[in-house]
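User: Predict structure, ligand copper (II) ion.
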Amino acid sequence: MHQFIWGFDGKKWSESDMIRFEYGERLRINMINDTMMSHPIHLHGMWMDLYAGGDLDTNPRKHTVNVQPAELLTVDITADAPGQWAFHCHLLYHMEAGMFRTVAVVRSLEGGSINADA
Ligand SMILES: [Cu+2]
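Assistant: Predicted complex:
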């Protein structure tokens, strides 16, 4: 497995910036797994509503979603938790190799403090 670089959007954690969500926004993330392994993706602090089409209010609510090889998986998130949160693959050797991001829920995407309460 050491010939692989594990990350998001082709970058491992040490090469990446924080992902910023604006406090209170409802957002959608599309995750495309272009590897040959499943990745259990875990977001701390907020729920991910697994997009299954139909009535959005009845979609399953998850902290961790399993993204299969060659799968496009979509989740909806309400950024209702100010602060910094881990977003990572739950296979620890993937996380340790770089499949990790910090999500910052901020007051404004225009810049300023990363603390939504500031
Ligand atoms: Cu993984």
